[in-house]
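Thread title: Can someone regenerate the structure for this chain?

I was given the following input by a collaborator and told the matching structure tokens would be attached. They weren't. Posting the sequence so someone can regenerate them.
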Amino acid sequence: MLSEQSLPVVRATLPAVGGALDSITERFYGRLFAAHPELLRDLFNRGNQAGGEQRKALAGSIAAFAVALLEKPDERPDVMLSRIANKHASLGVTSAQYKTVHEHLFAAIVEVLGEAVTPEVARAWDEVYWLMANALIAVETRLYQEAGVPEGQVWRPMEIAERREETPDTASFVLRHADGTPTAAFRPGQYVSVRVTLPDGARQIRQYSLSAAPGHPQWRITVKRVDGDPAGEVSSWLHAHARAGDAVEVSAPFGDLVLPEGDGPLLLTSAGIGSTPMLAMLDHLAATGSTRQVVVVHADRDPASHAHAEELRRLVDALPQGTLHLWYEEPGDSGARPGRADVTAVDLPTGVTAYLCGPLPFLRAVRGDLIGRGTAAADIHYEVFGPDLWLGADN
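Best answer:
Regenerated them for you:
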């Protein structure tokens, strides 16, 4: 909660700060990487930096948090904080790094806003920053404890036990511990980070959903090759070089798009490679003999592009109350409906909880359709691959 002294100052200056956030975050990252080039090389996603997505996500998170402090002073935006904290934990972010961010972020604010940053304004926004930072540190501390690892020490060497080509641009990798010990437990829907050393020496990190249920002695991830450099430099490296027997660095599992307990009805909606967390959920439901009502909606380009298509059908068929609805842009003779997925054309049970994963335009469209059908916003959960540019939405 903001102090009584800072509340009116933040309210009065939010339009100016919010309007300048894009310039502030651009200046911030420039300062940060000039002082700490190792962060860009070995921690931050160079593709997201080059495209500006990370800058926009940071600006959105700051603005959303400040608005939440003003509009709901007795509540924390826990959904937003959890999503950010899980991503940070999967990267091994430490509490000490928040001081480094503070130093360069506030220097950037002063550089952009100049004399408008009076001591009173600086104190108020300093309070906003540390309220957000300390909330994230608290969540990340809990996540590290639950994962059974010291702060930031999330990495472990693993071995590729098997590689399988799922589609022309998608491969799955089965991961195991080299000493044969079982992999750690995780919640269906979570992801791991994979860190690889690229030809220029950079150790870049990307997140991949675990695409099979917990309980197996090994993990599985499914990686779609992304074209372009630096956006696709990790996925392209894995496709070109990773083979059975190779060692890779993998983080502990994190992520908050997880299968809920209970027996309530579920809607699992995905597009493209967004099907991977849904596969883990379905695999778990099938393995545990679940009788929940589960509606599965998936969209893809065409049958040949749909990774794990037969597996998806098999898992849904294994559920007594499972139904599958497929849309392909080019369905051919697959039996799928043509065009883009339309949840308004699907019968949904009362009280359904929805889980979405896929590209941001897909998520926005499906979420809007569900709300239009009367699904409560609190019952719609999503995972977006990459920086979350949806921060501040009612989710």
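The chain has eleven helices and twelve strands.
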